[in-house]
């Protein structure tokens, strides 16, 4: 798997981070009298919520995640590491990477029960290779980061990239994996890559759009491993499983495993969400991905929405389809975009595991309220979602919500409160967006929504 570059469910005009489907991969503006930016903020304590899912659904998910690649190609055998897992770092990693990596490994030990540790040796089971972003895009233009089996360096990967040696279909037992990370990315993007790619190096190689509460989903809504994801990884490393098992062999063991590690799953009714048609996935990637002109993207978004409605979906995928349409319409028809966002909100509000989805929609809708000089409405829209952004460790979303609130407070004549909220937002923005110029550009972008400052509208 790889963290994708196409912008999906992101903040206002920002992008979020497709490589080969067989590769597992994921101008400075003045701020007035604020002066130097505050120190970068970061998250200290993970707050994952335990999954609320039936064991019947979880069993199906594990099998689909373990026995297929993102391309849809089947994997004949289950694979994982069969020894304690070591992790090492190569290249010039930025200062933020060390603490984020240590926190992730601690979570994997505590929540997933995986024996994993960081070592200083040159060789390890998982090698994190920090390279410039341009180097990654030179080899996989649509990837922000990616993971490859049976190599430990970029040179080794390049020499073997056309061979079966680096194909996950040839892996029967995981022993050596390299993860290529953008050393010059914003701290949050780098951390997101760590979570997604280490999780895939350890476990699932597939992504499923039907998963609403997971990083194993190409919509990129979740950026750090959830309680659901940790449960999936705990299943992968259960003592009764081993590399080389066939799908039917793993399936036979899952009921006992899940009864032991997710006992409440027997109390929940199975949702049995239908599989996602590949034409919907393709339409979404075309609509929100790079390298396609606007008309083609808009047509693809309309196709995705049509498929979602034809399938009779009422889950997060329908909401996502409306959201994608809204994002595409923002540049040409602001009112139609707003209606699409409202439909997305209504769908998400009636679907489970969508608190984070709702927060993204609220940011979009709040932008419209600010531009229309309705500050109280913008404050009411954003208030319920600050804790959601914090709980999901999404600094970019949190800073965006706070910047929106700052502008709303300014419109409401509460200047001193506005200033304090903006200062708070900028510390989070330094983690979420990275360099000072990006932070200042984000603040200027949201400030332009304010009609008292000559704003021109949302999006």
How would you describe this structure to a colleague?
By secondary structure, the protein is mainly alpha-helical. The protein is built from 17 helices and 5 strands. Helix content is 48%, strand content 6%. It has a 5-stranded mixed β-sheet with strand order 2-1-3-5-4. Helix 2 (97-112) links the parallel strand 1 and strand 2 (116-118). Helix 9 packs antiparallel against helix 10 (316-329) and helix 15 crosses helix 17. It starts with 54 loop residues before the first helix and ends in a 12-residue tail after the last helix.
What integer is the average pLDDT?
A: 91
In spatial order, strands of the major sheet run: 2-1-3-5-4
Percent of sequence in beta strands: 5-15%
The sequence of SSEs as H and E is HEHEEHEHEHHHHHHHHHHHHH
Tell me roughly what share of residues is in helical segments.
Answer: 40-55%
**Quick one: biggest sheet?**
5 strands, mixed
Shape call: globular
Would you report the number of β strands?
5
SS-based structural class? mainly alpha
CA-atom Rg in angstroms: 22 Å
Poorly predicted runs: 4-21, 26-33, 455-459
Helical stretch tally: 17
Separation, N- and C-terminal Cα atoms: 30 Å
């Amino acid at each position: 798997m790889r963290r994708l570059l196409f912008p999906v469910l992101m903040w206002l005009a920002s992008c979020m981070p497709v490589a080969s489907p067989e590769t597992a991969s994921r101008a400075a503006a003045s701020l007035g009298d604020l002066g130097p930016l505050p120190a970068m903020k970061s998250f200290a304590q993970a707050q994952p919520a335990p999954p609320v899912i039936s064991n019947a659904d979880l069993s199906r998910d594990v099998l689909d995640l373990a026995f297929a690649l993102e391309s849809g190609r089947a994997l004949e055998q289950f694979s994982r590491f069969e020894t304690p897992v070591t992790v090492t770092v190569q290249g010039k990693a930025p200062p933020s990477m060390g603490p984020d990596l240590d926190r992730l490994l601690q979570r994997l030990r505590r929540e997933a029960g995986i024996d994993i540790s960081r070592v200083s040796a040159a060789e390890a089971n998982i090698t994190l290779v920090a390279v410039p972003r341009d180097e990654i895009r030179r080899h996989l233009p649509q990837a922000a980061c990616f993971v490859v089996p049976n190599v430990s360096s970029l040179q080794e990967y390049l020499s073997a990239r056309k061979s079966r040696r680096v194909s996950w279909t040839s892996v029967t037992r995981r022993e050596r994996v390299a993860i290529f990370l953008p050393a010059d990315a914003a701290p949050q993007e780098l951390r997101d890559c760590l979570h997604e790619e280490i999780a895939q190096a350890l476990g699932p190689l597939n992504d499923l759009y039907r998963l609403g509460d997971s990083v194993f989903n190409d919509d990129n809504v979740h950026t750090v491993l959830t309680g659901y994801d940790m449960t999936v990884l705990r299943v992968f490393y259960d003592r009764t499983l081993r590399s080389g098992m066939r799908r039917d062999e793993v399936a036979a063991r899952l009921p006992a495993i899940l009864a032991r590690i997710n006992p409440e799953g027997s109390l929940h009714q199975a949702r049995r969400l239908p599989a996602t048609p590949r034409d919907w996935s393709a339409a979404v990637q075309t609509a929100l991905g790079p390298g396609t002109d606007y008309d083609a993207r808009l047509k693809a978004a309309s196709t995705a929405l049509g498929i979602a409605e034809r399938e009779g979906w009422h889950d997060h995928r329908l909401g996502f389809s409306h959201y994608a349409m809204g994002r595409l319409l923002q540049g040409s028809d602001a009112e139609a975009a707003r209606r699409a966002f409202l439909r997305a909100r209504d769908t998400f509000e009636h679907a489970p595991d969508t608190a984070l989805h709702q927060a993204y929609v609220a940011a979009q809708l709040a932008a419209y309220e600010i531009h229309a000089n309705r500050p109280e409405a913008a404050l009411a829209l954003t208030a319920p979602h600050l804790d959601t952004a914090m709980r999901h460790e999404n600094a970019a979303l949190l800073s965006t919500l706070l910047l929106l609130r700052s502008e709303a407070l300014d419109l409401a004549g509460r200047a001193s409160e506005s200033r304090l909220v903006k200062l708070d937002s900028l510390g989070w923005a330094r983690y979420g967006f990275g360099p000072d110029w990006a932070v200042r550009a984000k603040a200027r972008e949201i400030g332009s929504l304010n009609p008292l400052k000559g704003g021109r509208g949302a999006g």
